[in-house]
Amino acid sequence: LGSLGAASGLVVMGALWYVAKQRLSVRSLLKSALKTSEIYMVYQPVVNLSTREWIGAEALVRWRRPDGSDIRPDIFIPIAEETGLIQQMTLRIMETVAHDSVGILKKNPRFHIGMNLSGIDLESNTIIETLQRLLEHGHLRANNLLLEATERTLLKAHLANQVLSDIRSMGIAVAIDDFGTGYSSLSYLTELKFDYLKIDKSFVDTIGTNSATSHVIFHIIKMAQSLKLSIIAEGVESEHQARFLEQHGVQFAQGWLFAKPMLVADLVDHIHR
Ligand code: C2E
Ligand code: CA
Ligand code: CA
Ligand code: CA
Questions:
Q1: Nearest ligand 1 atom, CA 59
Q2: 118: which DSSP letter?
Q3: Which of 160, 182, 183, 164 is nearest to 174 (CA)?
């Protein structure tokens, strides 16, 4: 039995070593990809639910390998976070967005561009310096930007509170993302100041179903309204969901019903003046 225990211990150690080694090889692939066009951005329009007009877009990162295969952001972002590459990646993303914004803002100077923050971005002031630099040297203005942070992100970052309030004092809007999927949501909403609340797709999916949680979205909307937060619903796929949300006072939405994430050239082509 003792030797069996030792043997299974070895198997576990072997598996852990294998996973660690794979992470390291993904890290080195990602590190070099960051210097190439393998890493690029797509933009998913955010619409005004009552006019269906595109008022903004969320920037989403993509990784396409030279062999044409795509690696999903929910796979490579956690690896970038764990292997210390995320700051470099966020910098690259922000510079790309600043560059892309020139064409976007020519079409509509009031367009909003949303960017996702990772927990590590909220652990230091680097992000503040990057944002200041972009605002000083580019076409972007503070009121064109919306920075999104998830509850999970806020939980991990000790400086989150201070960094987010610094971002807001620059005149940049902040959103609590994937609302309802993290922990202790209520304390974040009352302690930190947000401008927008993004309702996670998992709640939008329950609209019109008999699922036990289908009433939850109703309460999330009511709560956001009582805290005077603007609401963006994500993952809207059906006209029925869009109508429900609009009838309950949700102003903004994104989802495949309106548009899928697209390259900046396509976005610019379709923005109304
Ligand atoms: P998220 O911030 O919740 O982004 C929304 C995700 O929902 C995106 O997935 C988007 O493509 C997808 N989506 C939007 N509408 C629909 C719909 O109607 N139906 C369905 N089935 N899906 C829809 P994506 O691009 O794969 O991103 C996944 C997550 O990776 C994001 O979730 C975000 O947490 C993270 N992420 C993406 N880009 C970035 C980035 O530039 N920086 C950071 N830190 N995280 C990012
Ligand atoms: Ca987001
Ligand atoms: Ca989200
Ligand atoms: Ca989500």
A1: 41
A2: P
A3: 164
- Residue whose CA is closest, atom 12 of ligand 1? 235
Residue 41 alpha carbon, nearest atom of ligand 1: 41
Residue reference for tokens 């923050």? 117
Per-residue pLDDT tens over the stretch 238-248: 999 999 999 99
Ligand 1 pocket test: pick from 60, 81, 150 the residue with the most ligand atoms within 8 Å of its Cβ.
Answer: 60
Q: Is 60 in the pocket of ligand 1 (CB under 6 A)?
A: yes
Dist CA 241 CA 235 (whole Å): 10
In tens, the pLDDT along 66-110 reads 999 999 999 999 999 999 999 999 999 999 999 999 999 999 999
227 token code pair: 């805290």
* Closest residue by Cα to residue 37 from 76, 70, 77, 65: 65
What pTM does this model have? 0.92
